[in-house]
Amino acid sequence: MTDKSLWLTTVCAAALGMAAPAFAQDNSAPQAAAEEPGADIIVTATRRASPLSDVPIAVSAVGAQAMQNSGASDIRTLNQLAPSLLVSSTGSEANASARIRGIGTVGDNPGLESSVAVFIDGVYRSRTGAGLNELGEIERVEVLRGPQGTLFGRNASAGLINIISKAPESTFHAKSEVTYGNYDYWRVSGRVTGPIADGVALALDGVWSKRDGFYKLVDATGAKVGDTNDRDRYFLRGQALIEPNDALSIRLIGDYTNRDESCCGAAYVEARERRPAAGGGYSTAPFNRIAAILAGQGSTIPADPYDRELSITPGRDYVSKLKDWGVSGEVNYDFGGAKLTSITAYRDYKSRDYGDYDYNRADLLYRDPNTYRQFKTFTQELRLQGSAFGEVLDWLVGGYYANEKLTLQDNIRFGADYGRFAACRLMAGASVNSNFTAQQLAACGSGLATQPLISGTQAQLNAGLTAALIGRGVPAAVAAAQAGAISTGLGNGLRALAAIPSGTGDVASLYHQKSENWALFTHNIINITKRLDLTLGLRYTHETKRFSADFNNNNATCAALQSSALPGIATNAALGSAATLAGGILTLGCLGNGSTTLNALDLNDKISDGEFSGTAVLSWKPIDDLLLYGSYSKGYKAGGYNLDRFQLGSTGLNAIPAVFAPRSNADVTSLRFAAEKVDSFEVGLKFSQPKWSANIAAFRQEFKNFQLNTFNGTSFVVQNINGCDSALSAARTCDSGDVGPGLISQGVELEASVIPARNFRVSGGFTWARAKFANRLVGSSDGSVPLDPALFLLPGSINSNAPQSVTTASVAWTPDIGSSGLSALFYVDGRMTSGYNTGSDLFPEKYQDGYAIVNARVGIRGKDQRWAVEFWGQNIFNQDYTQVSFSSPLQSSSPATSTTGQFAQGAPIANQLISSYLAEPRTYGITLRGSF
Question: b/e for 390-424, b at 16 or more Cβ within 10 A?
Fold first, then answer.
């Protein structure tokens, strides 16, 4: 998006905001059907049904009509309507990421629970990916901003997405919808509801959706051989609403989701090898040595990632299968002076995501078809609420219990090309000039020249070591013998590495996590006067997690390397480049601690934690139309385990890399991470009249032990990020008394809605949020663990996926056509965002420039909207942008030569290949809708 168009859009948004009071002078009545964000929707953000304008917290409510107009089928489309929210999916839609005010949990690591909780019909969903399923018929969606730890519990430290489906109705009603679009997109949905007896109503709704993939899969000649990132899913939900009398209401819900899709491909967005230039900046090398090796193994890197042409290893197609089902029962009983609510639920969520793991045609890494993750969750919530002292006190007390069993089988294996790639990568070196030409590297990768190059490298090492030892005064004969032993060990290590068999890795690596938590809470509104309220809430949560792992790994090469002389060479700094090479052989030969020695381990661990969270809000209504409030909230997100054997034994304090030696059962504690905590302060106002409304909030959120998950090109690193008030020591640590918040998000939010004329509504929002890390960071709450080297760019920087400014706007016009009841629909919405970094390590190569997304819909509707024909487009200007960029697995010369951000530290090159999960291109189609 150009600077000019950004400026014009901002000016238009500002003009709209200034015009709102003038528009409010029109006295014509609004059309009830034109429900949009900002309307005075009834919400349950405080577990009480209240008008949105009377709730003293920052919440965006999106009704069914707004969801329909925007074409929403899952929570990602809420990005267009809620400026403080950003939802994206990465390597698997099973573990999507949601951020509110620049804060969230990223990465495809099931051990981490989201900072943005998802509730559907009052039931907590274990991971945000549940919201990427089809939602069916929705009543409304509430986006609660800021920590919601009192009423909604743990794992809502940044906010909450509360989805409420449409309940059964007491009158018969049926509707259906058929959509067809480009990419051969089909979507069919329907709902039928009505009474079957006095006080008993049923509802059944379902969705089926199928679409071709957004990426073309091509072979070595460029010919299309398939596609990926397609859609093939269905969803069913049945409900019963039983109301035998005015006091008792029982709502039973059962739902089932099935997905059988190909997901998720990624495109290369950076493949240059860059060198630091004098005076700043960089120059580009004639070739990237990593790309040259891959070329010898059949890989090609398209010039334009947005051509959406990918090549992957034949037979390693991306597969994404999911089955998600659950049942719940909500019982409400009114005793007269108090109301009891019980919500009981059981859910079973299983996804299988496997296939190519290196995102190119070379056969380096893959996940085998036995890979899966499964969550079995039981939850029970009880609430009792009522009023006392002549309605001066609106009280609520409750309890919550959850039991979750997580099973992960994550089988990562080496492909047929891995060994040669690893050996060639090490021999190419990580200095400013490659040790070999592009042609030699391609021949090395293909196998034509691998062994001769290893022999040549061994000979060079032998000569260099001999000369160095003689230069230190070692007798020539002794020097020759020592150099010969060392160079032979390195040569044999390279040969063993190059010969790692295809299929080496996890045969069946299982992780189990059992989580049990209970909570007691109270939330009370004290009506000090008719216009002044004080809200006090407190919750105590107790969490216990038990972890175990059972490995079955067949990497005998690693065990042999670890028992050789290589660890001794790698830890002898006096050997210089020979020590570096030995460390590289061990690291790549034992990638992620993969070894037969893992099979003897019996990992078991337990953590237990109890935390208080709560809120205090003072709200005042000086006039009926205006609400002013100020609040403090304390939030909490549970700690847990990094379910990734790659980090087993890595504590952040290792003098010797963990991968240099076999691991032990005692290493299990290295997988722990602590609970995330936040203190939040907020002031705001809400002004609402029938013709227009405006909400403003200013906030500051201070996060301690922020759970950061980043992929460093090899493994997922999880650290608790904290700040230090004092200077760091030489070991990059600080005293525990100097530890403070590691991440602070602060800013302002504006939402407005205006009806300047009958059947015409304009809504908009603006968020300025600065989610910034402290200038000095450590990786533990006591300051004793330094920040992981992969995160060196974080201090003083803005968090990833946290644009500082976002503007959203929507316009809906539904004019009558004649007097027969026909009406038209003209709808457009847009989201304009400033630039932001999409990688949690903040490599500059992963930066996404600002952009704007526009959706539109036009149509004609029958009387009472009994039928409709609509033409629609999503991303109508075909804006190219990335959701998340990441370091392509293993595809750099070394961790120290990955990014231009390391030039200031003396890195001679930056040649990490960067891949991205691209956002969806322009889509368009037609929808036919009917009801009776």
Answer: eeeebbbebebebebbbbbbbbbbbbbbbbbbbbb
pLDDT at 674: 94
Instruction: Please give the average per-residue pLDDT across 140-148, as a whole number.
Output: 92
CA 899, CA 277: separation in Å to the nearest integer? 14
Q: Which two tokens stand for residue 179?
A: 């959509």
Handedness of CA 841, 847, 851, 854 (dihedral sign): negative
Q: What is the pLDDT of residue 131?
A: 66
* Average pLDDT over every residue of 595-621: 95
Q: Are 870 and 926 in contact (CB under 8 A)?
A: yes
Query: What tens digit of pLDDT does each residue of 215-256 get?
Result: 999 998 889 999 999 999 999 999 999 999 999 999 999 999
Give residue-wise pLDDT tens across range 675-695. 999 999 999 999 999 899 999
Cα–Cα distance between 713 and 365 in angstroms, integer?
12
**Cβ-count burial of 758 within 10 angstroms (0-12 exposed, 13-18 middle, 19+ buried)?**
middle
Q: Which region, left, alpha or beta, applies to residue 336 given φ > 0 means left and ψ of -120 to 50 means alpha? A: left
Measured CA to CA, the distance from residue 829 to residue 288 in angstroms comes to: 42
3-state secondary structure 897-930: HCCHHHHHHCCCCECCCEEEEECCCCEEEEEEEE
What is the reported pLDDT for 93? 62
Kindly report the number of other CB atoms within 10 A of residue 32's CB atom. Answer: 8
**Each residue's pLDDT tens digit, 279-288:** 889 999 999 9
Q: Is residue 224 classed exposed, middle or buried when 0-12, 13-18 and 19+ CB atoms within 10 A define those classes?
A: exposed
Label the pairing between strands 116-120 and 215-218.
unpaired
Phi–psi pair at 444, nearest 5 degrees: -65, -45
Start-to-end CA span in the chain (Å): 44
Spatial contact of 640 and 602, defined as CB atoms under 8 Å apart: no
Q: How many residues does the chain have?
A: 932
Task: Please state the pTM of the whole predicted model.
Answer: 0.91
